[in-house]
Amino acid sequence: MGTLPARRNIPPWVKVPEDLKDPEVFQVQTRLLKAMFGPDGSRIPYIEQVSKAMLELKALESSDLTEVVVYGSYLYKLRTKWMLQSMAEWHRQRQERGMLKLEEAMTALELGPWMK
């Protein structure tokens, strides 16, 4: 997903400063970001609006992980964290199944791993 967009504003449903304290934080494989959030994070505003939370993505240096920080009221941020973790797992499994199908097809065509 390249560079992550900087946060410019706080959505109106996030109460300042109480909702900005004690965010929920988890990590997602960077390769899943485009599938989850769209190209250049284009789906983030929609996800924030529907979940009534605010998201912030932070690329972790020397890692293939990105930190997802969820701000909002207690229940909204827990629900949003659970939803995003579920989405990440679904996309991870989907990509894994795609790789297995590709390997099976290559085996069926008798293409060796040197062709990958």
Automatic annotation (TrEMBL):
Keyword RNA-binding part of the UniProt annotation: yes
InterPro entries, per the entry: KH_dom_type_1_sf, MOEP19_KH-like
Superkingdom of source: Eukaryota
Every KH-like RNA-binding domain range: 11-95
Main location: cytoplasm
One annotated GO molecular function: mRNA binding
One GO process term, biological-process aspect: regulation of gene expression
GO cellular component terms listed in the entry, alphabetical order: cytoplasm
Record localization: Cytoplasm
Keyword RNA-binding: yes
Key words, A-Z: Cytoplasm, Developmental protein, RNA-binding
Protein task: Involved in the maintenance of embryonic stem (ES) cell pluripotency. Dispensable for self-renewal of pluripotent ES cells and establishment of germ cells. Associates with specific target mRNAs.
Alphabetical list of PANTHER family matching this protein: DEVELOPMENT PLURPOTENCY-ASSOCIATED PROTEIN 1/5 FAMILY MEMBER, DEVELOPMENTAL PLURIPOTENCY-ASSOCIATED 5 PROTEIN
Similarity comment text for this entry: Belongs to the KHDC1 family.
Protein name: Embryonal stem cell-specific gene 1 protein
Naturally occurring in which organism (per UniProt): Piliocolobus tephrosceles
Source organism phylogeny: Eukaryota, Metazoa, Chordata, Craniata, Vertebrata
Recorded name of the encoding gene: DPPA5
